[in-house]
Amino acid sequence: MHPFSFAKAANTRDALDAGRHGGRYIAGGTTLVDLMRETVERPETLVDISDLPLRDVTVAERGGLRIGALVTMSEAAAHPKVRTLYPVISQALELSASAQLRNMATIGGNIMQRTRCTYFRDVTADCNKREPGSGCAALKGFNRTHAILGTSDACVATHPSDAAVAFAALEARVHLLGPDGERQVPFADFLLRPGNTPNREQALRRGELITGVEVPALPRPLKSGYLKVRDRQSYEFALTSAAVALHVRGGVIREAKVAAGGVGTVPWKLPAVERHLVGERPSDSLWAAAAERAADGARPLRHNRFKVELLKRTVERQLRVVGGSK
């Protein structure tokens, strides 16, 4: 670990001032500290923001939900309103990491976490995300766990967050506060695909701070859930996952929200699947037909071709779980 200075922000103004001068924000530290130990991250200054008033979960009048950036994963997962209104979020959080990490890690930190690509974390390997222009060792290396959607010739690393898949499916918005004031960014625009600049991962401006994640109000009744497929039952990242939310009224699907994880360079929204569902009556044949569209545009690599079929099966299974089998 390289030397760094440490400061604790007493208020939002202190935090923004430190961030404007290059300080890196830290709360739970469950990802950043690991990367610092491995010398992947080498910040000169850390700014502890754990005392900022960003720990509330609030419900809007129409049923939307806002989760403060410093709410821990375990707090968010256990919150009665989160569990009742959007079980897909609770389930995604509870299937993440270990109980000890969930007690420390925050919502803001979770969506900011960096990839678990072994080449990214190995400072001796070529990695455009870590060192722009150095190349991508995963392209010709062992790439079983890497992405099949949203990839580029510069990067094929997956985004690791489970909660981010739920937020992507529900079309959440990220609330930001920076030197230029407050703004909101659609979740789909907040996490960036690699393109030619895989080192730029979020649509953050210098010194900006995440203050919360807002899930919009969706029609009721709404059924939702999260499915995670992995090599072992616990403490493992997804090979594939599916976040599904369905609004069914009068026996017809009126609204469908679907996203996948473990297969994309960012949490991957599945609009083709959603379009296939809306206006139809739930049935096993519908789930199967819709899931066939889940891997549209996939570019599998040598060792992860199995993810194409696994993604389709994962989406189909979760559609059946949430929407029912007929």
TrEMBL record:
Keyword hit for Oxidoreductase: yes
Ranges of residues in domain FAD-binding PCMH-type: 1-220
InterPro entries: CO_DH_flav_C, CO_DH_flav_C_dom_sf, Diverse_Substr_Oxidored, FAD-bd_PCMH, FAD-bd_PCMH-like_sf, FAD-bd_PCMH_sub1, FAD-bd_PCMH_sub2, Mopterin_DH_FAD-bd
Any one GO molecular function term: FAD binding
Keywords of the record: Oxidoreductase
Keyword Transport: no
Top-level EC class: oxidoreductase
Pfam families listed in its UniProt record: CO_deh_flav_C, FAD_binding_5
EC number of this enzyme: 1.17.1.4
Top-level taxon of origin: Bacteria
This protein's name: Xanthine dehydrogenase YagS FAD-binding subunit
Organism: Streptomyces violarus
